[in-house]
Records
---
Amino acid sequence: MERIKTHGGEILREPEFVAGRGTLAFFADPNGAILGIVEPLLHNGEIESTDWIWHELITNDAEAAATWFAEVFELKAEKSADGKRFILRKNDFQIASVSENPFEDTRNQWVPVLAVVNFDGILEKVEELGGQIILPPSEEMNKGQLAMILDPNQAPIVIQKKGAAQ
């Protein structure tokens, strides 16, 4: 928390223990992207795995944001092989990525990626339930196995067909 503050971030919710989950806090980086962090409880000495498979920060200055997160969280920021984003890693483990915000009217924000079994069925329901498909599946994005949607409140999420190369 101290490094977030000293590097120009803002603590939005001080660390708090949540039963069954661990200690969590929320903060905004210097460009206003909000992120929640958690120190998870361990179950039998291990962190429980989920289908939330990735996190991507879309921001107006990807290099500066990647550098900021690397400094604050003691990570390494490397440009991806395709040169389109920065990968944040701890040792050899990839943590998240940072890329330029492709949308003119969207704030800087973190976008979670969720692996789903019923990929096509979910896409069919998005608009019916008040959401939008803003980046439909295409061959350029993981061979059509990935899509970005907005919920009715304009919160983004990327869904990826479970089992597709991750």
---
Amino acid sequence: MKDSDSLTTALLLHAYTLGIFPMAESRDDPDIFWVDPRRRGIFPLDGFHVSRSLARTLRRMDYQVSVNRDFAGVVDACADRPETWINAEIAQLYLELHELGHAHSLEISAGGQLIGGVYGVTIGAAFFGESMFSRRRDGSKIALVWLVDRLRQAGFTLFDTQFITPHLASLGAIEISRAEYQARLHEALARRADFTAPPPPDNAQSVLQRITQTS
């Protein structure tokens, strides 16, 4: 289905409550189509896997973690790749959702530069992960660890990754049927969570103690 002429933030939020999300074929393709996967990727928030090597990287803390400090920078970084589904209209819509308090980012920085990050949409107790990026080894993995910790602390019950990849599966993401996803979505939408409520990021050891199954 392609119809970006009437795509607004209100329609976009409504689409998420139905379990569908928008994509473009490429950065330069003006058309936007709706996606409703038969198999859906999710992160069980109580089953995130952190390898020993990633745990060591996290504990070094040679990076800084921030929340909603550079949402536009994270979106731009996610779109800055040879193949992307983020065209100009989609990027603008998520910037508007961020201004409305329905889209959030978590940034990983070092030396004043973004080295990793992730952004997504929140409705009720559902977090719809949109995209992530990495400019340094494990940059996106570090971001996901801190994100999962925040979602757990904030009361979220669903972390939707849309699709599953080997990268996400290695961290504990699983694939479920459309019917099961709809049931989990319905339950999450009936709950309340606040992405901004948890205190500022603390130290990596505390995060690891809260969320991990170290393997």
